[in-house]
């Protein structure tokens, strides 16, 4: 399980408001894709998914104010394909 | 023996020089698409940091969290006035863009610039302040706790940015010689006071938008690319 945190956004930006979730719980996400948009002052910031996998939990809903370092979500990371499966595919091919 | 030297030299040039795209009159949605493409290129590491400068046909834009009551008239009234209505994924509230207003959309990589959103907002303000002070002698300033640029009691520039993977888009809109009447159709920001165009401070003189554009671009280069060695914090 990988947790998604609100990064430090600058010296005077210790907190941000969750403005938009791009996915719902249960969705498959790809590493680096936009996961959640947060807003601070006159800026929006897209927090990317730190890994590929399934979004299993959203801990801050739209409108919530979160401190830098706070947990936003959890992702169950994709597991790598097992070597045995590869061998079976190769053998059948 | 020569190849490595040339390679290093080319790298230094592309790192230090921003690409300036003067897009002229550009539809808001087209500007969004252009920014999206440029942001993706810079995130990938293959694109060059870019300043897109343009004017928009009349359009009211609003962010995801903009209360719709801040648009004071019905969409039909906007349409009748020839003003489009477009959503935007940026910070800030509802705003208006139109011909005569210069819009600067810097696509900059904040991973190389200290990863500080508020510092970047202050730099954008400084870009406008320096241009207005140095070239036009206007006492432009920022207000503590607010974002934008003011001259006297009037707000002359509005700022709203978006950041993706620490690469910026959206930016700053400077009211140069645009019609200010459409701002009466929206509630841009209650604390910001009235807005004005810079041209209104030069009643007896013509203020060419192209000239102001060149001053802003020069100021942008000085703020964000002042050293030959590359971007500065």
Notes on the structure:
The complex is a heterodimer of chains A (93) and B (233). Chain A is mainly beta. Chain A has a single domain (2-92), classed as Beta Barrel (OB fold (Dihydrolipoamide Acetyltransferase, E2P)). Helix content of chain A is 11%, strand content 45%. Chain A has one helix at 83-92; strands at residues 2-5, 15-21, 28-29, 34-40, 43-48, 53-58, 65-67, 71-77. The longest helix of chain A is centred in the C-terminal third of the chain and has 10 residues, at 83-92. The model of chain A has no long low-confidence stretch (mean pLDDT 88). Chain B has helices at 2-16, 28-44, 75-80, 117-136, 209-224, and strands spanning 19-25, 50-55, 59-62, 84-87, 95-97, 101-107, 140-141, 149-151, 154-164, 167-175. In chain B, the strands form 2 sheets. Chain B has a 7-stranded mixed β-sheet, sandwiched between helices. In chain B, strands 4-3-5 form a 3-stranded mixed β-sheet. Helices cover 32% and strands 24% of the residues of chain B. In chain B, strand 9 and strand 10 form a beta hairpin. The longest helix of chain B is centred in the middle third of the chain and has 20 residues, at 117-136. Chain B is of the alpha+beta class and 233 residues long. Classes of the chains: A mainly beta (93), B alpha+beta (233). The interface between A and B is medium-sized, with 22 and 22 residues.
Descriptive key words:
heterodimer; A: mainly beta; four-stranded antiparallel beta sheet; B: 233 residues; alpha+beta; BirA Bifunctional Protein, domain 2; seven-stranded mixed beta sheet; three-stranded mixed beta sheet; 5 helices; 32% helix; 24% strand; disordered C terminus
Summarize the structure.
The complex is a heterodimer of chains A (93) and B (233). Chain A has 93 residues and is mainly β. Chain A has one helix spanning 83-92; strands at residues 2-5, 15-21, 28-29, 34-40, 43-48, 53-58, 65-67, 71-77.
């Amino acid at each position: 399980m990988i947790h998604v945190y609100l990064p430090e956004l600058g010296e005077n930006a210790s907190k941000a408001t969750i403005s938009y979730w791009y996915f719902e719980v249960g969705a498959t996400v790809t590493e680096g894709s936009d996961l959640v948009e947060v807003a601070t002052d006159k800026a929006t910031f897209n927090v990317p998914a730190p890994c590929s996998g399934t979004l299993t939990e959203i801990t801050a809903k739209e409108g919530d104010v979160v401190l830098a370092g706070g947990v936003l979500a959890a992702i169950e990371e994709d597991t790598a394909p097992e070597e045995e499966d590869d061998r079976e595919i190769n053998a059948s091919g | 023996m020569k190849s490595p030297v040339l390679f290093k030299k080319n790298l230094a040039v592309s790192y230090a020089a921003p690409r300036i795209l003067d897009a002229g009159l550009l539809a808001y949605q087209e500007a969004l698409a252009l920014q999206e493409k440029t942001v993706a290129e810079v995130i990938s590491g293959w694109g060059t940091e870019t300043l897109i400068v343009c004017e928009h046909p009349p359009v009211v834009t609003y962010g995801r969290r903009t209360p719709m009551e801040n648009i004071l008239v019905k969409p039909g009234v906007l349409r009748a006035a020839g003003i489009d209505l477009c959503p935007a994924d940026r910070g800030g509230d509802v705003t208006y863009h139109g011909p005569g207003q210069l819009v600067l959309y810097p696509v900059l990589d904040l991973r190389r610039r200290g990863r500080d959103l508020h510092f970047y907002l202050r730099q954008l303000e400084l870009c406008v302040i320096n241009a207005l002070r140095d070239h036009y002698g206007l006492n432009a300033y920022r207000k503590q706790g607010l974002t934008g640029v003011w001259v006297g009691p009037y707000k002359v520039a509005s700022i709203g940015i978006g950041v993706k993977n620490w690469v910026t888009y959206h930016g700053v809109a400077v009211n140069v010689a645009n019609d200010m009447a459409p701002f009466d159709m929206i509630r841009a920001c209650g604390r910001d006071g009235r807005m004005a165009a810079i041209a209104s401070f030069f009643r007896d003189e013509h203020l060419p938008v192209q000239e102001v554009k060149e001053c802003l671009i020069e100021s942008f280069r000085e703020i964000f690319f002042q050293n030959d060695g590359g971007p500065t914090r």
